[in-house]
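Notes taken during the Thursday session

The instructor put the following on the board and asked us to keep it in front of us for the whole hour. The protein is Carbohydrate ABC transporter permease. We were told not to look anything up and to reason only from what is written here. First, the residues (295 in total):
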Amino acid sequence: MVSMNRRTPREVIFDRLNDVFMLVICFVTMYPIWYVLVNSLNDGNDAMRGGIYWWPRVFSFDSYLAVFANDGIMLAMGVTVAKTVVGTVVHVLFTAMVAYAFSRKELIGRRAYMMLGTVTLFFSGGLIPSYLLIRDLGLLDSFWVYIIPAMFSFFDLIVFQAFFREIPDGLEEAAKLDGANDFKIFRSVILPVSMPVVATIALFHGVYQWNDYFTGMIYINQSELQPIQTYLYRVVAQSSSNQMMAATSGNIAKSVSSQSIKLATMVITSLPIVIIYPFLQKYFVKGFMIGSIKG
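Then, after some discussion, the predicted structure tokens were revealed:
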């Protein structure tokens, strides 16, 4: 009796070609990261000769020591951590509250609000009107320029709303019988049972806040308020790496270059989110699945 699970030669060849194709994609994706890491761990002056592709030729941590010796990068890292934590908490709570109101059928004008919000997903005023608005609000050169404009996202509202609609009405009715108002229901009933979507949106927005360099580049002129990604932009695109090398102590300065400092800075600024992301990747999958299946 022939097994029903026996695969044909054509299927085997197809699977092997898929394996090769995926290995090529993984290599093309990962090799630039590996190249940056290897060259950042090599002696800067030696790396200028080229020919380093797979592992350091002259292993050295001096480029990293030169980066950490710079007070600017540590200050920028602190700004990034602060805006990521504060911005994520504020965004999640505010967007969740608005989404909870939108999920109520008794909300007057809900259809009109949804239509207006949907338009904003496809059209925006552009950079100049946004800059003028930020200026008139007094948010230029302010830490709150990272927080207030990013408090709300209509796309995240849709994700929250899809989840809230699946919560049984009986939970709210029981809370109302106990005398709870809408705010207490949201705080004590809705949020505790919505932790999967809360974690998903927190991850979405946390990654955005960490990687955002454009806000600091456009709205911030004070160096002490620039986040790490804007600082990285300055190092890569401008002459900051030369200034950092000039400020490095004598022994370390002999084994670093402007290029090695740029690469080390890129690794340092990317490492935290690279380490965290694999552990939280499952929430991205859940986020895309929320609302797609009624259970």
